[in-house]
Amino acid sequence: MRPFLVPALLCLASLLHAQNPPPSSAPFRDKQVPHEPGFRVFIVPDMEGMGSAVDIHEVIAGNEGERYKELTGPDYWDRFRLLLTREVNATIRGARGAGARSFVVNEGHGGNLFANVLPWELDSSAILVRGFPKPLVMVTGIDSSFGTLMFTGAHANAGSPGVLAHNFAFDTFTVNGKALNEVGINALIAGELGVSVSLVSGDDVLIDETKTMLPNGFVAIVTKRAVGRSAAITYSPAKVRRMLQNGAADAVKRELRGDFKPFTMERPYRVEFALRRTFADSIVQAVAGLQEFKLERKGDRHFSYVTGSARQMGWLLDAIEEAVLR
Amino acid sequence: MIRLLSVTALLIATPVWAQGHPARDSTPRDTTPPAAAFGVTEYRQARQKLEQDMQRDGFSVYIIADMEGLAGAVRNATEMRPVSRGGSPQHERFRQELTDEVNALIAGARSAGATQFIVNEGHGGTLFRNILVDRLDPEAILIRGYPKPIVMSTGMNPMVDAMMIVGAHANAGSPGVISHNFAFDSFTVNGKPLNEAGIAAFIGGEMGVPLALASGDDVLTRETLEMLGALETVTTKTAFSRSAAAVLPPATVHRLLRQAGVRAVRRVKAGELRPLKMETPYQVRFCLRRSFTEDDWVRTTVGRLNGVSAIGGPGCFSYTSESAEAVGNLLNEVEWTVLKP
Predict the structure, then answer these.
(1) Distance between CA B238 and CA B244 in Å, rounded?
(2) Where exactly are the structural domains of chain B?
(3) pTM score, two decimals?
(4) The CATH number of domain B43-184+192-269 is 3.30.980.10
């Protein structure tokens, strides 16, 4: 998800608030994507970690809010959304070659409000979850019928020296004392449903940190090596697609062999997080006022939360987004 | 690269709330080290990261891709920067031309036996993201984005066999098309003036890597030849002012680049093109660009950089080092100082 999207949405929402408050996704929490037979793959494409991308201009459409108008150009996001779609297609191709039969792609990137993949260019066998808001944000639509979970174009955790590194709306986020990046958080939600992560692609910083975070292993694809927050040693898009195709085939084969285990942690989960320093106090107050979740305020922007359900923690992530929007 | 462009570029890359910066004056400013402010990792770390991708055998070519010296290019305001940075849509056509010229050079070098190609974006117009990634030779590794350590020599290492610079421009103060030199009006090492190509040759030279080819206008090719003694050159245009030139047809330039790429690799293999070696300790003298010199804070801050001392002349400094890489890092620090809002 975009690091800068939340303030962007805030601007947008404040404009709309008077007549048209943002819809809550809560009534949609129990909905499922259509069921399909065969081995199912759930793919979460983000953009910061995709091949070649290094700069915010390349992952922002410019329509996310007033501040973002200048952060794109006709040649940037547009060009990269096609490359993104081709990366997803390569992943699907590889997985299909190894026996997968059903594919759900859930937009994991907030640019253009979670609508980056080009539906007309996407592999025609895939179901695409797009738009915002959505109940489980990055894993909306996942259920226990999926055989495996893949993250493409993922980015490193907030505070790390990775390309466009960030973590939802947080400066820090831990569960039972363990720091989780976006991949880790979503792996936990999926893990509770018995779905394991088999593939992660992104820059070298993301891959290194995720390897220590998810002890059950996964196929790792280094799409680029970070040499700054907005600079990297990159490879040809064609080469990255080849790596993804081969990696996805390998991932499905190993998943079918039982090489990977769902990522689980001890319950109840003790969640602690710090909202971004850059957020206005009003946002912190709004999060503090979330009624559905019994958050305990530990400090200025620090909160703790205990839950027996990672899925509910996912709803909290969405609720934070919505609280931020109000 | 274009210094002025990167000023604009950096301001845009800075968070929006930081953009309403005060006009330059002598009040104290944020002097947070670049690493903390911009997230640039250490130069050595970048070098180690590139080394992981280097072939142990074969012949590796490191290409610096600048834009002012491209076939056809004459005007900074419209051709060198995109719409989103105050330029014009014509910039897009020159991104394609840049990609074509780099591909021509790769094709030539490959036919002479080169096996690995690293392309480093050297032009600030699009925040060092000018090459069209999906049209570049698919075997090339591309270093893109900004900020990155030692902008034009990121990742340079002794496993590189030859350096080449395409689309280069002449030195600050020379009568070349869009001539300039980083943040400087002059830059010398042991009394020898170095342009941007020369500085890259100096940093690579210490690692045993020769600058084997440079392309750009007639002023650039002549001065670089004088600077380095021997290298392959492709003259893409004849300068008639800082923004006018008699330009060769792009197709002709592509052919010349292919041919020169072949000759450059052959001559490096034959030992004819040698790395630029200079005597240590390196005595660096530089004068900041006049517009920076007039800024008290910039002048004071540059003067306080580790190892730098003021010499005669406003905005002129000396720096002594045993290491060309350290000089490269000094370039970074000066850049960041003059760019700081």
Answers:
(1) 9
(2) 43-184+192-269
(3) 0.87
(4) no
